[in-house]
What we know:
Layout: E1 3-4, H1 7-29, E2 34-40, H2 44-59, E3 63-69, H3 75-87, E4 93-96, H4 106-111, H5 124-131, H6 142-155, E5 163-167, H7 174-183, E6 187-191, H8 198-202, E7 207-210, E8 228-231, E9 235-238, E10 247-250, H9 255-259, E11 264-265, H10 272-291
Parallel strand pairs: 1-11, 2-3, 2-4, 5-6, 5-7, 7-8, 8-11
Antiparallel strand pairs: 9-10
Amino acid sequence: MAVxxxxxxxxxxxxxxxRKSAEALEAEKGVKPGLxxxxxxxxxASHAYVNSKSKMAKQCGFNSIQHTLPExxxxxxxxxxxxELNADASIHGILVQLPLPKHFNSDEIIQSILPExxxxxxxxxxxxxxxxxxxxxxxxxxxxxxxxxxVRGIHGEDLSGLNAVVIGRSNxxxxxxxxxxxxxxxxxxxxxxxxxxLAGICKTADILVAAxxxxxxxKGDWVKPGATVIDVGINRIQAPEKGEGKSKLVGDVxxxxxxxxxxxxxxxxxxxxxxxxxxxxxNTVIAAHRALGLTAPKF
Length: 299
Ligand code: GUN
């Protein structure tokens, strides 16, 4: 049976390091890291994520601000809010929760966030720094940064000689994840919905990362014996075995099958999920240090 990678424990150790770093910053400079989270509309899952982000920011000793805007908010009004947050020196990190309601031009909103406050790592500047191998001066998207810490916990810093397969090519996860693995010297394949023989390609992976958004799509016989499996999916499915109308969260990987073949695997929940919030806290304390002209901590 595979080792179960404990994302909750790793996330707790990162947030504790962030809390200490924020405490030291406040003691030395009298400044609390400031995080503004913006959510538009009524999607219950997004509200749950955003509430946990705001709560964790408070636990880390941050100045935590949440803007909850109605569904009918206009593009111009949201751009204006981002502009105000950009100009507010007490705010070091800005996160606009995605997806935005359909009438928004999300890209224009995201690109309007100042790159130094873009704690999601989605600005063209931050994405470009990662793509060109500059991991030191930009901000890296939270979920891939967190997944990478879990990979490092198993394989160390240098992935030379290892094949990594990432399924999914989103700007928020798949692309930055592929680049982080490549930077660590893995041989990387980016697979996606148009890939031919996905199962065969996955079977070549020493490190298999699934971010497809489909419950249990990656089967046990897609996994190379001894592989590390990182499951980024969070899918809510019916769970009649828990009682009528009940549901549960599952990943993109068929966990029981895959854990019988893999050497290490992340569970859902409790794997990559908690790392996303921890890395958001890390990015915010990093951004606050840089805003004050200080050397940022590393996580
Ligand atoms: N929606 C789901 N995950 C994320 C994330 O990491 N950042 C933002 N902004 N929205 C999300």
